[in-house]
Amino acid sequence: LSQARAGIISTVEVLKVMEAFVNEPNYTVWSDLSCNLGILSTLLSHTDFYEEIQVFVKDVFSPIGERLGWDPKPGEGHLDALLRGLVLGKLGKAGHKATLEEARRRFKDHVEGKHILSADLRSPVYVTILKHGDSTTLDTMLKLHKQADMQEEKNRIERVLGAISQPELIQKVLTFALSEEVRPQDTVSVIGGVAGGSKQGRKAAWKFLRDNWEELYNRYQGGFLISRLIKV
To answer: Which positions fall inside the ERAP1-like C-terminal domain (predicted)?
Structure first.
């Protein structure tokens, strides 16, 4: 990927190498693949190839997703749980039909209190239903945020809210970032999630940063959070 980014080889060569990892069992390798595909997806979101790279993601991640399934197996280690969350989140965001349907089913059961999602599955499920959700989905997530007893759960929700796709809902998430519902130190995570969520999100987050620069700068002046905010 570094060679492709430097213009030494074609990105096609990178994708061919990625295809060779479909039977890879190791979380660390998949994490790297996921990160690199994320970089390519971001670049291609400004081109006609964005939908095609999503199909590629589904093709590469589907076999490992089917092997892992949704539920832990006896004898699994911590890395297997991390891998399951990574793979399901990647497939869900890319619009993998079976993953999306299962995520919606499990989210409904979670919200209704029938079957509470395990901590490992919450982020991938939340990301999936938000990415392909509507205003009702966002309202439900904000309600879960308000009801959450633990700060860990609030932070988990804050990080994924930016996955929502519709422009008016992106604005709602950005407004929420500066509300009293979000701790000042966590505002950056919400804005960063929007910036990383989609092409529309990046544009909206950049405009939001400029429009609210004075308030944000005064809030974080001299601290590492202002540099983190600029970076995202």
So the answer is: 3-231
Residues 151-209 pLDDT 10s: 999 999 999 999 999 999 999 999 999 999 999 999 999 999 999 999 999 999 999 99
Write down the number of H helices and E strands in the chain: 14, 0
**Domain spans in the chain, listed from the N-terminal domain onward:** 1-94
Angle between helix axes 151-160 and 119-131 (nearest 10 degrees) is 30
What is this structure's pTM?
0.93
User: How far is it, in rounded angstroms, from Cα 158 to Cα 141?
Assistant: 9
Q: Which two tokens stand for residue 195?
A: 């910036």
Mean pLDDT value of segment 47-55 = 94
- Considering only CA atoms, which of 143, 145, 103 is closest in space to residue 127? 103
Tokens of 90: 């990647």
Structure tokens at 53: 């790279």
164-169 own/partner pairs: CB under 8 Å, 24+ apart: 164/130, 164/131, 164/133, 164/137, 164/138, 164/197, 165/131, 165/132, 165/197, 165/198, 165/200, 166/134, 166/135, 167/200, 167/204, 169/134, 169/135, 169/138
Predicted confidence (pLDDT) at residue 223 exceeds the cutoff of 90: no
